[in-house]
Specification:
The complex is a heterodimer of chains A (156) and B (789). Chain A has 156 residues and is an alpha+beta fold. Chain A contains 5 helices and 5 strands; from the N terminus they run ββαβββαααα. With 789 residues, chain B is an alpha+beta fold. Chain B is built from 19 helices and 28 strands. The N and C termini of chain B lie far apart (61 Å). Classes of the chains: A alpha+beta (156), B alpha+beta (789). At the A-B interface, helix 2, helix 3, helix 4 and helix 5 of A face helix 1 and helix 17 of B.
Chain lengths: 156, 789
Amino acid sequence: MSVSVSMTVNGEAVSGNVEGRTLLVQFIREHLGLTGTHVGCDTSQCGACVVHINGTSKKSCTTLAVQADGADIKTIEGLANGDELHPMQAAFREHHGLQCGFCTPGMVMSAVDLVKENPSPSEQEIRDWLEGNLCRCTGYHNIVKAIKAGAEAMRG
Amino acid sequence: MSEHGMGASVRRKEDYRFLTGNGHYLDDMVRPRQTFACFVRSPHAHAKIRGIDTSSAASAPGVIGIFTGKDLEADGVGPLICGWGITDKNGEPHKAPAHPALATDEVRHVGDQLAVVIAETLEQARDGAELVSVDYEELPAVVLPKNAMDASSPLVHADVPNNLCYDWELGDKAATEAAFSNAAHVTSIDIVNNRLVPNAIEPRAAIGEYDAGSENLTLYTTSQNPHVARLVLSAFNGIAPEHKLRVIAPDVGGGFGSKIFIYAEETVCLWAARKVRRPVKWTASRSEAFQTDAHGRDHVTHAELAMDADGKFLGLRVNTIANMGAYLSTFATCVPSYLYATLLAGQYTTPAIYCDVQAVFTNTTPVDALRGAGRPEATYVIERLVETAAKETGVAPSELRRRNMVAADAYPYQTPVIMQYDCGNYGASLDEAMRIADHTGFAARKAEAQSRGKLRGIGFSAYIEACGIAPSAAVGSLGAGVGLWEAGQIRFNPTGNVTVFTGSHSHGQGHETTFAQIISERLGVPFENIDVVHGDTDKVMFGMGTYGSRSAAVGGSALVKAADKIIEKGRKIAAHILEASEDDIEFANGNFTVAGTDKAMNIGEVAFAAYVPHNYPEGLEPGLNETAVYDPLNFSFPAGTHICEVEIDPDTGAVEIVNYTAVDDFGTVINPMIVAGQVQGGVAHGVGQALHEGCNYDENGQLITGSFMDYSMPRADNTPSVDIGYTSVPSPSNPLGVKGCGEAGAIAAPAATINAVVDALWDLGVHDIAMPATAHKIWQSIRAAKAAA
């Protein structure tokens, strides 16, 4: 049975008909064609699917589309200001915080929320915050460096 | 050094698209009228298939096709292959039992696929697969490699006695026996190299597509080597002739070896696309990835080192049982043989080495190459042995290593196990690592830790690996079914910008950046005017792909050769236009100059003249587009020393890596930022193996560690930051002088980490600990040692 959902995604009003079991990440990827949000596991562990729901980082693989009805969603596609990268995106590039790029959107979205919570996180606080985001390529070192630099840039 | 040339930490071309959500990974692709596949998989480790009832599934909503192994057989689809032939110690070929893409008579591991349901939507395909009813007759399973050859163990394949794929040997057995009979001291160890699940964060995926008009097939797949996939799918699986098949590997989210192989799922999706006349898409769930991505390692080894009274190594004797899993994956046979035993000399002059490897089948997921592939296992054997020997004889571990290292002036150095090392300076790496790690300050740090009730240990790993894989004739003589050269093409466009095509594949390594740096440096073309194309068999002439840290050494060298051809042709064009002799034309920084004059034209102008050949050398072909194929002269031999320092809480067994130093000789470094990233990531992989990761089956062959909830991946809060140094000796075996950097960390780190843990615990009486050395295991070891004391 299909259900109608409406929400704001990256500032645009969107709506669609989904099954009750449709996950938010499926709605974002398959209905809206915003494929920057990724799926890397089926147990809510890897964090490749992290988006912002009403300003807070959430795993969109563990949220039903119907639960997000009426919500304000931001995905990686909505982070940059036109062609100008968000300071956190720029910091990931500058500090080589990504290799294959698959975990990257989730990492960046998670990091932006961390800085909102804690504008000046220590290395340990960054490492603790990332417990829900897996990366197989980088060994995390450059991700941590990038988030530290990104936080500084966001503070301005 | 120019801003974008060799040696510059150029920021990556790839990053903008990945950071903005504009990457094109396979699951992001939507093909017109695509359908979805869901595989029916065995819940049992071993069972006879008595029947498959698809009738309910066939009438389920949205289901448009259900296929089994019988359908593949009827269409003449060949089984999956293993592409490296091993000749055993009796001169017999390895046992190669049939590996059907969909099992027909028996299933042999949990997750073994036996049918596929194709439907309009993914949910309908899954619902349909749930309705396929399989009548299984459960059979007993064999799980552990050490039990595989027991007479009482069940047979994985009825036609493979004792579950023995091969019993293979390398080295001089008699000379090694003689070395042991003359030894003053013999050190023995029994070790297990734990089984790992590769876990690239992007799961494998495939779309098969059939064009009825041209009868062409296209496979989109998460591959590290799309041309090899096309070759195998054509020549062995017989799905389409090579010229009617295009394989595209778009942005791929990590590989680590697991995406080298030609798997059942892409084979079936490609074949089924022609059956249903629509694109067929499959994306692995993480659970499927755990069950079906080829696993890594899984060795059981007994090893002995013979030394004289001065601590000089006389002989090394190694017996290994290697788990192949239930079937042979694409390159499984070469990993515990030619990628393993050939590296057992390590950095040392051990004159006599003998290794025996028994490769066995078990009812587990197939095992194949994973980051390092054989070389981590060899390094772990050698460096655990050397460290234990140092402890037993009271010689400092660094000193024992130094006494036995191949001298810096001894190259080329022929080992007793095939490899000829081309260059190196192992003592320099050891010295530099000890300097960066402040080895002299360790005793004081240990004492200080002790005052806080903590146990501190330090461990070395002096590793070597063979990369730049590989000279085709050499690997051919060892059983490889393919040549291991690489192809490259440089195409100047008429307006002077450049499209570079490479047979290497980038899935995180940053080739779009580093290969552009090579071309920018060699041809003087601005970095931003160079685009690198890879991963499409219709665009790139051919390629053997990316694995074994070979892309720069082999793929990069092919581009150097192509660049040389561009310069040679450009010289002819410039000489004609500048009215000079070809011999008088010099090329530097993108300019062709008449020697001793200011008459010059840049390479962009030469390219334009080549495409608009109004004033052009007679007899010369228009265009500026050169291809080259590079077959390496030798392997390259990255080497170095890693030092790990740990602190253990004896009350909990928890380990903290307090310092980790990596000093590597990668030869020439093209992009230091990218190389350092590879080191950090590789060390994380190796530390993961040492402390966290372990794939476990229960005694019935059920996969216990089947998700990220159960399988402990390295995470941000338990992965060290690495202090990095280099002692570079450029490789003489390729024109770039590069050696390869992608696997070193995963090769060196397990031994360095475990040596550090054992060093911390040695005085308590703990002399070995099995990987992964979890807090629980360490705590138990401490308790057991105290009880025994």
